[in-house]
Design goal:
The protein starts with a strand and ends with a strand. The chain has 21 helices and 28 strands. It has 798 residues and is α/β, with parallel strands linked by helices.
Length: 798
Amino acid sequence: MMLEALPATAVTETALTRSAPTDAAVTDAADHAAESPLPPVSPTPRNLAREGRDAVVTGRVLVVADEGTDAGARDRLVRELRSHGAHRVDIVAPEEIPGAAAGLLTVRLGPATRPDIAAALGDTRAPGRDEGYALRVKGARPGAEVTLGGEDAAGQFYAVQTLRQLFVRAGGKAWKVAGVRVSDFPSMPLRGTIEGFYGQPWTHAERLDQMDFYGDVKANTYIYAPKDDPHHRGKWREPYPADKLNELGELVRRATANHVRFTFAVSPGESICYSDPADREALKAKLQALYDLGTRAFSIPLDDISYTRWNCEADREAFGDPGREAAARAQVDLLNDVQRDFVATHEGAQPLQMVPTEYGDLTDTAYKQTLRNTLDPAVEVMWTGTAVVPPKITNEEADKASELFGRKVFVWDNYPVNDFGNTSGRLLLAPYDKREAGLSAHLSGVVANPMNQPYASKVAVFGTADFAWNDGAYDARKNWPRAMAYLADGDREATEALLVFGDLEHLAPTFGATPWQPQAPELARRVTEFWTSWDEGDRAAAVTALRAYATAVERAPATIRGGAVEEGFTVDAADWLDATELWGKAMVRMLDALAKRQAGDKEASDRLLAESNELQRQARAVRVDPPRNSWGKVQPKVGDGVLDSFLVRADVRLRLWDTAGGGRNLALEGTASASSVERNLDHLAPRHVNDGLTGTRWASGYSDDEWVRVELSAPATVAAVTVAWESACATEYTVQTSPDGVNWTTASTQRPDACGNDVVRLAATEAVRYVRVRGVERKTTWGYSIHELGVYGEPVSQ
């Protein structure tokens, strides 16, 4: 029986025979490739090894499938074959394979236990685990074979996703499939994302795209929980309007086609009366509406709410005076009811998920004690790691969390989410990292909380999926370029441009003072090498080396926008790309100015310096507009603390050329003090303003007339001061200098357009010992907040 033909034409032995000579003509291209390196596969398979000769994709391909073949896997297989050289793909049942098919590539897809698949796999064993699969590519002539056997429907789909990455060029327009054998299954049962950020939710089209992306990276979980969807949180009792419900239904179907578990979350904690039967019925009705659309997984997040007050007096009567233990009793009563009365009574429903109000620490409390002792064991508990945005997650921490909640926890990982103050103006493009190998034995799964920018989030989510699939083999250094290559559709030049751009957006903040991933590590390394070579006298070589990278920075935005990179990424990153091009041009001009000055051409050097400064001004004027994030129209941060610091340092060297041959950030060796500290908090103390860390900050009291100063280690001529503002900046401020800390001179008055990184150039005529920034007028009702205060100049010999 013919199951399907694409295109729908009859398959005859004569037709198959006619196609064989043409297809065989390309097989020689595979003969010399048997020992070539295998292409990278992400997520990293558990077992992947070469299996002799590659298999050539013939012009006509036979796909052997039956009723047990997953439709989504079959459709994706056909699509991939067609995009890699197959002009026609015929689908036949196992018992209907034409006898004259010997010259064609034959691909078998279905359950690993199907007799023809089991025989073709031979000693390539299926792993016997949920979502597992086995894959074997045999390139022997005649009749190369590819066999894909899944332990379940998802396993079949994932086998195809691995095969998708094994196509390699065979010369000209021909393609082949790398000869391999694979036995693979995921380390964690739950892998994916939670759309759980504050700010503008994703659009429907963006969510549909994400479902396809998750299928590509073998992520099986998407939790719908956007904080600013009113029907998810504030209006949780109200049913979704018909148009929104239709969108959710389409999203559920797209997720299911990609073997992604669409998980519907509703967050009633701000207003629910736990003891009110009407509220419980409203909650279940909300869940029922999504169940009717095909949803089979549900979550009740109870994060970011007050649990020391009741929303109704009836809860006081039912659970006692408000407090940790009482809140936990009320929450457990609701959650157990939903698990036992709704989830357990609905066919196919997965165990209920929940987010506790205490979700980001390892402290035992009455709240956690009550949850672990009384919450239904079937309920999945989510945990964010320590400090909400965790700089790391270790096996020991995961065990402690599991002990506190009485079950393996499900990690809600707040990376790369950028909806909090320390992420203002940032895209977070560093790789997924600092999660310990072996966590799969201690967790039930990991979901990443992405950014408001969905396409830019794919860089980190690509890594999250790789880690959750095979945490023991995960390597962030290898994964990052693979993620960029995915966005660039394999284009090498575009991939390199994305890596350059990603380096400038590498900083990953926490809620605390110290980022957990550094800014621009590659550029920082090159800048350090530059100044070392420059100071050692090898100035021409220093300029040549760094100028090549600066040119790469300048050209990266145009390359990224050139068509190879996913268009959505270019839209998400548009303002950052605009700024990057200007910063790159400014860096090239600055290096040229240094080269000209070294060659003795001061006039040309001054002209180039002026051009660089104008480009820097233009870069600082760029704004994220329109903003998707709650931070508003802010300056996009690009290599801040590295690129801008290099430009200031080079500027100072040029300005002080005739005095001492250069300058440096003298603030790092100085002592900071301030007029006040916000609430006397130590992590906001003035010493953080000159610690060289862009993630720390000083913050003042709540008045206009506040200041912070740096006492230099020795008197110096000061050519420039840099101020890296946090979002609580100044509408107007002055930069003042003093030889003794008593008598002050106002060197400059600044009225910046927005909070960002300011560079204030000074006359550098007299030696000073103190430099301070003094507020005139605040931009917010808070005080002033500065990440870093830089002082660039040259010490004066005593």
